Amino acid sequence: MQEILRGMPWWVKWVAIPLIAIVVFGGMIASFIGILVWLLFKVLLFVAIVGGLIYVVRKFMTTSSSSSDRSDW
């Protein structure tokens, strides 16, 4: 690879080739980032729903257990 780029100016190596790579693979990179963001959103949504469910169940259990304690006496 170095033999191919040996006589080229610096801007070909450090500007033109990376820009071409971004143009060619940009859609794939954007899709990959979009999938990662979508997956992170789904994980956070799952954690929030499970946390809310646990909160509601614990709140209901403490309320029902305290009301059943009062009805015993």
Could you please describe the fold and organization of this structure?
This is DUF5326 family protein. The protein is mainly α and 73 residues long. It has one domain. It has two helices and no strands. It has helices spanning 2-5, 10-72. The mean pLDDT is 89.
Oligomer classification: single chain
- End-to-end C-alpha gap: 87 Å
Count of alpha/pi helices: 2
List low-confidence stretches: none
Beta strand %: under 5%
Order of helices and strands: HH
Mean pLDDT: 89
SSE-based structural type = mainly alpha
How big is the Rg? Answer: 29 Å
Estimate the helix proportion, in percent. over 70%
Report the strand count.
0
Largest sheet properties: none
Shape: rod-shaped
Give the tally of structural domains.
Answer: 1
Q: Which features characterize this protein?
A:
73 residues, DUF5326 family protein, 2 helices, mainly alpha
Give a brief description:
It comes from Streptomyces pratisoli. The protein is mainly α.
Ordered list of secondary-structure elements with their pairings:
Blueprint: H1 2-5, H2 10-72
